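S.,

Sequence below, as promised.
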Amino acid sequence: MTAVKKEHESLTFEAALSELEKIVRQLESGGADLNASITSYERGMALKKLCEDKLKEAQTRIEKITLAADGSAKTEAFPVSD
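The prediction came back faster than expected:
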């Protein structure tokens, strides 16, 4: 496993999203040179994937509570759409 991948796995969703937002603002401002912009873009794409993966993981952990016809509660997996 690469150091970059390990670093990504240790980031929380909120930290990754915050860094991604910062990168987007930086790229939109156009203040960086081409090489720095490419590097930032690549980092941003990795952070985007991390955020998507963490959201999918969270969705699979959520259970939907439903009421049966007799009024009893039951849980079922939350439907995950791609």
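The first strand starts at residue 63 and ends at 67.

Coffee later?
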